[in-house]
Amino acid sequence: MELWYTEKQTPALGFSCKVKETLYRAQTDYQEIAVLDTFQFGRMLVLDGMVQTTVADEFIYHEMIVHIPLRTHPQPRSVLVIGGGDGGAVREISKYPQVERITLAEIDLQVVEAAKRFLPEISSALEDFRLEIKIVDGIEYIRSLQAAYDIIIVDSTEPVGPAVGLFASSFYEAVYRALKPEGIIVAQTESPFLNAALIRTVFRRLKAIFPQTSLYLAPVPTYPSGLWSFSLGSKCYDPLQPQGKLLPRDTRYYTPQVHRSAFSLPRFVQELLEE
Ligand code: SAM
Fold it and tell me: Around Cβ 91, how many Cβ atoms within 10 Å?
């Protein structure tokens, strides 16, 4: 008998994977967690029926959400990740020796525990000595901060449930206050094919707060439509002029050329950013 997992990406579109085994399933206070072992993408983390990450293609998403902001800043010392309980973003941040303090603000302890148990390739840096894991709502946590971080990375779930507020103007205002004077925010902002309205809204909200805003793209095969967007707000540095001198080690997707080209937007995406 064959077992298949299907994510209903839209009411009219499904993404299916042949499954070897369901390794873990739990209902937490926030979401349903599943870890599947798939033939095509290896182990896969699924939250509320939506693919969050897979061992085969996670490197693209995690390298792009981390290295673009960290190489844009000349000397990132303190980095906050909101969400990101799988640990992939932390693993990429841990490649920077100049980073002294990493905070992971994840609402659901069971995501962190499932990642440590079933996704060791992704979660390996959750033991980094510079990391503090806070099991908190990122929206609450950010409100208490003033000029505390060089970089804030919003590695959130889709804007449903506890993640809805991570896409609100009031959240971005709090992020602005929580960033140091040369700080940078990057947020994952879904697919330009399927979530155009969301990208437009987030971009407008960031633009009302940050002096520099830009959008960049990367292909992520297991995410809806395969084309993913990241929205960046910067108080000072232009991401097209990266200030970082050192290149992160062991990247498989990120290069300085990819950094530049990710900001070259197709016309239909460019149009989403126009007033
Ligand atoms: N890379 C992924 C994607 O784009 O699909 C995101 C992965 S990561 C596992 C997302 C995490 O955000 C989840 O573990 C979820 O628990 C967390 N999260 C959602 N809302 C949150 C909030 N308000 N504060 C902190 N963490 C939150």
Answer: 21
